[in-house]
Structure formats: structure tokens, C-alpha cells
Inverse folding.
């Protein structure tokens, strides 16, 4: 089955055909680094990380670009509040973003451009728009003329009049049309600024992404992704300024994830339900947060709740425990010859791939993964000697699924404290042999305080970290 993606530009699923065979130019809108990113932002970071992983699994060479917006009104206002420079603010929260994203299993992009590092590209793009009469200068500000671009509104599929009636726009009599947007903002006291043909100033938000994406990936991108709240005005404006400048299609596939709700309400600071990803991962295991985000189709809204996170935690534990049981079974005695489990695993893998090919339906793919867990657990418990061929087939599929989804706990062999933990377990075993149960219990309690769970069995003591 061919990978099909829902394209918001055409409002239908389409077979994915890249511009260059075997390569994917993929841009995702990244964070504005004025604070810790919130849990709603975590959703696109996670789901598009999975799409990138899946495309790489299919054999594509993916150039994955996710930017940092490090100059805009929010950055300037927050830096003033904190009494530091905009650059210091950016450095602080870029570092925080990377720490939180990596804790959630999000791999680093191929490139992470920063707006302030692409000022020359931004100015060059604005100059082309001015020269082509798609932009005009007023008192050192430069505005894009939306009426000069006949296709304005094609992503939103609304007319200028409809967009204007539904948008919150500042009244500015200097603009030709209320929806004209700033490409360049004239310098104001106390703000960072750069030299330009129109005087010192700084870029507008929308032009930053168009300049960075085309500088990194060329005039036409295969995929541009982000939250659905960015469709208008941000992505609509990106299309207008990029296509007006180049005369070429800007993006082939536009992909947007649905909203994340908090207890059935849209998250906002005014409602008091605003939650950063950092605070969330302090309360819930990062692996559970990641699995939760993938438990619904990316285009559907999802409700972030205590109940949902606890269910995700339990599900993550099932996956991790199955992986550990599988490894233990493979270390023990097994039966040779054919096993029906091989065909059953093949069927679950086929279903997994079919779900991912169908607009990367992670919810359906997870369903196939949990069917595999059920089959493996049943086989290990019910068979006197589990089939080596079946267990190896399951191991290969779980490893493959983990590479794509990133939702199975890493084997304990990769734990940086493995040697110390296993030394303490050996001490506990010795204490139990000489019936020093006070010492043995103290060692178990000490390990438990670190989130280490011990399981005593006929083949010795097995350990794992709490999810």
C-alpha cells in the first residue's frame, strides 16, 4: 500500500509522491522561544516526529527542518519583563525546548534554523516582493498587499471578505487592505533591529518561516506541517509571500494536527488550564505523554486528562513488560520448528503498516501493536516451550514499531546505572541466601526509592525502571 496523506490544500487524501524520488523536504513550524513550550505544542512535535520516523523507515531520505522563532513581539516583551536581552532569552528557552523535546522522545531535526540567523534571506525575500509590486513601504514598515495575490485564501478556502469578517485585525489607515500584514517592522526604541533598504527594523513573524524554509529546502517543499491554529493567518500568509516571490508552488502537502483540549476546554492562560510540557512531564512519565499523544488520529481533537494519562501510563507499562518478557523467553529454552505465531505476527505487522500508510493513523497502528502484545503474552504463558521462530518474529516487529513510534521503554541493558543496580541486586541475593532478610528488604526499598522494580522468579531476579 502506498502512503497517503490528507492534504489540507485539497481537502482530501492523496498518494504521497515527493518532488525528488526517494527524498522528502519536510518543514514543521517550531516554537517561539519566550517560555517553556506548552503541552498543546507537544502534540505536533511528537506526531510529526513519528511521520518523519515512518518516512525514514520506508526508505526516504528526509530533510526535516523545524525552526526557532527567536525574534517577535512575545520575545521582546518577555525579555523586557525578565530584564535580559532577547538573545539571552532565546538561548535559555532553546536549551529548555531541547531538553523537554528529547525527554518526550522527539528526535532533533536535520536543521534548526533561527530567524535572527536568516536576516539576509528575509530581507532578500522582502526585496523581491517589493520589486514585484506585492509589497509596499510605509514609514519604514513593509506590508504585503493581499489584493495583489489572487490566490490569497486558498488554504483556508475562504474569500478575502470572509477572512476579514472572521479575523481580529488592528485598524491601520496606512494599509491598503485590513488583512495586509507586516513583512518588516520599523525600529522602535529598546528593540533589536537590523539594517535594511527601508531603514533599521526587524522582520514580521510570517516572513521568517517562508525565508527559512525556502533557504533550507528550496522554493517548493514536499510537506509543511503545524497545528491547525496556524492555518490562518500564518500558513495562509506563508503561501502568499513565498509564491508571490518565486512564482512557484510553495508546498505540495499541507498537514495540520487537531487541537489539544484540557478537560474538554481549549487550553488558555485565562482559563487557568495552561500546562507546560515541562510541568506535564514532572507529573506524568514522558513515555506515557508520548503514547497518549499518539492514541488518537493526529487530525482529531484530543482531551488531555488525568484519566487519559493514567491509561496511557498503563498501556506503556504493558508494552515495556511484553518487551522484557520476550527477551527473557528468548534467553530460556525454546522450541524449534514452525509456529502459528509467526503468521500471526506477520498479520499484525501488515495491519500496522496499513494503518500508518493511511494518513499515518497512529491510533490504528497502536491497536495492531497491542494485538501483538496480547499474542506474545498468550504464547509465552500457554506454551510449555515457546517457539523461537515466533519469539524472534515478535522481537523484530517490536523493534521495528519502536523505531517508528518510540513508545517502548528501552531495554535495561541500556540503562546508565545498570552496573550499580545489578551489583545491589547481587548483594540482595547474597543477603537472602544467608537469610539476612532485614538487609535484603533494605536493599529492595533503596532500589524502589529510585523507581527500580524487582521481580523474583525461578530464573532469578529481574529488574525494570518504573515508567
Amino acid at each position: 500500500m502506498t502512503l497517503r496523506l490528507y492534504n489540507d490544500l485539497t481537502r482530501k487524501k492523496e498518494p504521497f509522491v515527493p518532488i525528488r524520488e526517494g527524498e522528502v523536504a519536510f518543514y514543521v513550524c517550531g516554537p517561539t522561544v519566550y517560555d517553556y513550550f506548552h503541552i498543546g505544542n507537544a502534540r505536533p512535535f511528537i506526531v510529526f516526529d513519528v511521520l518523519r520516523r515512518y518516512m525514514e523507515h520506508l526508505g526516504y531520505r528526509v530533510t526535516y527542518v523545524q525552526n526557532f522563532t527567536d525574534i517577535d513581539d512575545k520575545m521582546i516583551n518577555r525579555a523586557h519583563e525578565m530584564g535580559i536581552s532577547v538573545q539571552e532569552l532565546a538561548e535559555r528557552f532553546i536549551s529548555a525546548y531541547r531538553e523537554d523535546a528529547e525527554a518526550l522522545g522527539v528526535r532533533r531535526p536535520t536543521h534548526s534554523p533561527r530567524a535572527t540567523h536568516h536576516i539576509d534571506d528575509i530581507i532578500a525575500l522582502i526585496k523581491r516582493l517589493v520589486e514585484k509590486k506585492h509589497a509596499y513601504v510605509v514609514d519604514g514598515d513593509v506590508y504585503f498587499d493581499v489584493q495583489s495575490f489572487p490566490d490569497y485564501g486558498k488554504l483556508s478556502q475562504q474569500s478575502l471578505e470572509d477572512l476579514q469578517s472572521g479575523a481580529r485585525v488592528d485598524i491601520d489607515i496606512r494599509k491598503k487592505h485590513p488583512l495586509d500584514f507586516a513583512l518588516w517592522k520599523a525600529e522602535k526604541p529598546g528593540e533589536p533591529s537590523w539594517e535594511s533598504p527601508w531603514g533599521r527594523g526587524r522582520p514580521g513573524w510570517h516572513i521568517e518561516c517562508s525565508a527559512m524554509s525556502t533557504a533550507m529546502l528550496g522554493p517548493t517543499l514536499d510537506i509543511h506541517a503545524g497545528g491547525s491554529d496556524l492555518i490562518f493567518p500564518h500558513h495562509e500568509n506563508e503561501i502568499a509571500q513565498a509564491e508571490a516571490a518565486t512564482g512557484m508552488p510553495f508546498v505540495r502537502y499541507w498537514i495540520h494536527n487537531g487541537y489539544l483540549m484540557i478537560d474538554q476546554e481549549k487550553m488558555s492562560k485565562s482559563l487557568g488550564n495552561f500546562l507546560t510540557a515541562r510541568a506535564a512531564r514532572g507529573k506524568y512519565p514522558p513515555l506515557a505523554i508520548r503514547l497518549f499523544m499518539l492514541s488518537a488520529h493526529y487530525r482529531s481533537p484530543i482531551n488531555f486528562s488525568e484519566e487519559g494519562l493514567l491509561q496511557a501510563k498503563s498501556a506503556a507499562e504493558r508494552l515495556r513488560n511484553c518487551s522484557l518478557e520476550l527477551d527473557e523467553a528468548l534467553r530460556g529454552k525454546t522450541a524449534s520448528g514452525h509456529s502459528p505465531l509467526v503468521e500471526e505476527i506477520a498479520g499484525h505487522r501488515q495491519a500496522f503498516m496499513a494503518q500508518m500508510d493511511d494518513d499515518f493513523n497512529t491510533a490504528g497502528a497502536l491497536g495492531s501493536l497491542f494485538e501483538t502484545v496480547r499474542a506474545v503474552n498468550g504464547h509465552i504463558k500457554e506454551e510449555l516451550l515457546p517457539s523461537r521462530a515466533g519469539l524472534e518474529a515478535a522481537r523484530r516487529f517490536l523493534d521495528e514499531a519502536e523505531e517508528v513510534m518510540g513508545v517502548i521503554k528501552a531495554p535495561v541493558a541500556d540503562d546508565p546505572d545498570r552496573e550499580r543496580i545489578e551489583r545491589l541486586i547481587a548483594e540482595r541475593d547474597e543477603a537472602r541466601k544467608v537469610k539476612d532478610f532485614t538487609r535484603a528488604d533494605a536493599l529492595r526499598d533503596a532500589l524502589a526509592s529510585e523507581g527500580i522494580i524487582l521481580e523474583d522468579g525461578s530464573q532469578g531476579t529481574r529488574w525494570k525502571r518504573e515508567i
The chain has a mean pLDDT of 93. The radius of gyration is 26 Å.
